[in-house]
Design goal:
15 helices; globular; 4-stranded antiparallel β-sheet; alpha/beta; 7-stranded mixed β-sheet; binds pyridoxal-5'-phosphate
């Protein structure tokens, strides 16, 4: 569905009311109202999330899956209810396909260290793309080094779109896994992941999708996408830090050995032999981030109440406005101009170093990210050392974009 069709279908968000749910947005920074345009790095948290975490610690705090006492039962119930919320949110077939981890990084490392280590042999290949975040590069590089395998990299065009023919050609008889982002953190490109999954599956190659930048913006249905693994972080989805999700198809998770050993991941232990717990506990060694999971569940409730269609429509409107406004600024170059984009705007501004752009904007109360965005190989492909990046969420308004443009005029005044 096009963004225009979406907008026609859903009621617009009441952003002023929504902003009242985010206490952190109410403050001033350097004497100016905060304009938070760094949600791709981490999103702000609604009061409902903060309250859910506080309530857990105030009323229910106990360890999960262990005690017979009431508090432990309540904590276990809340933790497992959060897993069910995640299952519904990404439309996984089973709750046991949802593994709680620390974040996207840990989810990808888990797959590399279990699935990867048992499947990849010398001479094999893993395929990623040039747009990956370091967390979807380095774990595969480490695996390939250990196994004598090769990391292949699918290229992109100058707009920041994957060149699908070339990507398809790189999936060969030795490819063991394709791993790519759903949405690029540095450029905002939304990749045609369903088509890519089909390409890989035709050759019987499983696909891992890094959904860190997708879940805050798009409705994700892992069964419709057909992917084998899907990873995301709670803190980019308006939930707390320290919690994330690895979704894996049951058949694959069943076959994979555990990663970390310890409490909860076992079924029985003797000094001679340990047998492992069933899914998903086999992959959740030790006391998990119970409060984090509960907070993530509350974030999912919050986002679901707003509706991802309404969020996508609002953000698309903001993206169009921001793109037009930034293009009016002489000397400003947008980096990442794909047809399908989430609300992320990377840019360069004349000769001004992105770090200086970020510093001057900060003095105006405007928070943007500057640097390589944990995507150094992408920066090399683009021929730049760094960019400035404004990333928008549903709590942003047109005024925030206009403040960014005014801030950039200040940057130009300072740097002539
Ligand atoms: C596309 C993408 N993948 C992975 C990550 C890593 O996420 P985390 O640091 O929460 O593990 C990020 C974080 O910026 C990201 O944007």
């Amino acid at each position: 569905m096009t963004a225009e069709a979406l907008r026609a279908r859903v009621a617009p968000l009441d952003v002023e009311r929504i902003r009242k749910d985010f206490p952190v947005l109410e403050q001033e920074v350097h004497g100016k109202p905060l304009v938070y345009l760094d949600s791709a790095a981490t999103s702000q948290k609604p009061r409902a999330v903060i309250d859910a975490i506080a309530r857990y610690y105030l009323e229910d705090n106990a360890n999960v899956h262990r005690g017979v006492h009431l508090l432990s039962e309540r904590a276990t119930h809340a933790y497992e209810a959060a897993r069910e919320k995640v299952r519904r949110f990404i439309h996984a077939a089973h709750a046991h396909e949802i593994v709680f981890v620390r974040g996207t990084t840990e989810a990808i490392n888990l797959v590399a260290q279990t699935y990867g280590r048992t499947r990849v042999r010398p001479g094999d290949e893993n395929l990623i793309t040039v747009m990956e975040h370091h967390s979807n590069i380095v774990p595969w590089q480490m695996l390939c080094e250990e196994k004598g395998a090769t990391l292949r990299v699918a290229p992109m065009d100058d707009d920041g779109q994957l060149i699908l023919d070339e990507l398809e050609r790189l999936i060969g008889p030795r490819t063991k896994l394709v791993a790519l982002g759903h949405v690029s953190n540095a450029l905002g490109t939304i990749h045609p992941v369903r088509r890519i999954v089909e390409m890989a599956h035709r050759r019987k190659v499983p696909v891992l999708l890094d959904g860190a930048q997708a879940v805050p913006h798009l409705a994700v249905d892992v069964q419709a996408l057909g992917c084998d693994f899907y990873a995301f972080s709670g803190h980019k989805l308006f939930g707390p830090t320290g919690i994330g999700v690895l979704y894996g198809r049951s058949e694959l998770l069943e076959e994979m050995p555990p990663w970390q050993g310890g409490g909860d991941m076992i079924s029985s232990v003797t000094f001679e032999k340990t047998t492992y717990n069933k899914l998903p506990y086999k992959f959740e060694a030790g006391t998990p981030d119970i409060a984090g999971a509960i907070g993530l569940g509350a974030a999912i409730d919050y986002v679901s109440r707003l509706g991802l269609e309404a969020i996508a429509a609002h953000e698309h409107e903001l993206l169009v406005h921001a793109t037009e406004a930034l293009r009016q600024l002489p000397g400003l170059r947008l980096v990442g101009t794909a047809k399908e984009k989430a609300s992320v705007l990377s840019f360069l501004f004349g000769d001004v170093h992105p770090h200086d752009i970020g510093t001057i904007l900060d003095r105006e109360g405007i928070a943007v990210r500057t640097g390589h965005h944990c995507a150094q190989p992408l920066m090399q492909r683009l021929g730049v050392a760094a960019t400035a990046r404004a990333s928008l969420a549903f709590y942003n308004r047109r005024e925030d974009v206009d403040a960014l443009v005014a801030g950039l005029h200040k940057v130009r005044e300072v740097f002539g």
